[in-house]
Specification:
The chain has 11 helices and no strands. Helix 2 runs antiparallel to helix 8, helix 3 packs antiparallel against helix 4 and helix 10 packs antiparallel against helix 11. The longest helix is centred in the N-terminal third of the chain and has 32 residues. The two termini are 35 Å apart.
Length: 231
């Protein structure tokens, strides 16, 4: 059995590529936060507490429009709902005698990428392996956000505006591959774009609330009409 130290070092090694990717994406997120008048400390703390690109960006839209706290809570829950499924899968990988505090701290670092390397690393979860990946990747995410905000304060407005587009490019890169492989996913993505465009002039609801309603509506219809064969 591996020692905690060896597992921790392996986690750091596997977490370095994740950290590099996080820093680049977080920089773009920081540019968007700067446009919402957030400072570097606020951006750092938000990213450190959330560690979720889609969730943070969704929250950012609500915050920028002075949305209500309840909207932020619901948007965060909906945008990060997939982590519930990942966490459920990870709980099956813990040894029965694993203390609660290990489960708690591993749960803090459940992201798409760390989940992926954790599942592929060993049959059972090694908490110190996850700690190694978390300790190198999460600070890169939080600091990348801060650097993006600082750069936004220094760079000319034209460059800041251009860099803001990078975040949208990230989301396009996320949705295109699965949409090409699965026609149902492609239909969901197209429906999201179309309904967002059709409801853009509805002023009775804030942008954040419209996002919540459309996400739940489209996902529910897709799950009802095209249930997963293994569900």
């Amino acid at each position: 059995m591996k020692t905690n130290r060896l597992a921790f070092l392996e986690g750091i090694k596997d977490g370095i590529p994740i950290a590099l990717g996080y820093a680049a994406v977080a920089f773009s997120l920081g540019i968007a936060m700067r446009n919402a008048d957030m400072n570097a400390l606020q951006g750092f703390l938000i990213s450190l507490a959330n560690v979720a690109s889609a969730g943070e960006y969704a929250d950012l839209q609500v915050i920028a429009e002075d949305g209500a706290y309840i909207e932020i809570i619901i948007v965060t829950f909906v945008a990060n709902m997939r982590y519930l499924l990942m966490s459920t899968a990870l709980t099956q990988r813990f040894l029965r005698d694993t203390p609660f505090y290990h489960r708690f701290f591993v749960g803090y670092g459940v992201t798409d990428e760390i989940f992926g390397i954790s599942i592929g690393h060993a049959k059972h979860i090694e908490p110190f392996y996850n700690y190694g990946a978390i300790v190198v990747s999460v600070p890169a995410w939080a600091l990348g956000t801060s650097f993006g905000i600082l750069a936004g304060n220094i760079l000319p407005s034209r460059i800041v505006s251009a860099l803001s587009v990078a975040l949208y490019g990230m989301f396009i890169a996320i949705i295109i591959p699965p949409a090409k492989e699965n026609p149902v996913t492609a239909g969901v993505v197209i429906s999201g774009f179309l309904l967002s465009w059709l409801t853009r002039n509805i002023t009775l609801l804030s942008s954040g609330m419209k996002t919540i309603i459309l996400t739940i509506f489209i996902a529910s219809i897709a799950a009802w009409r095209f249930p997963h064969e293994n569900a």
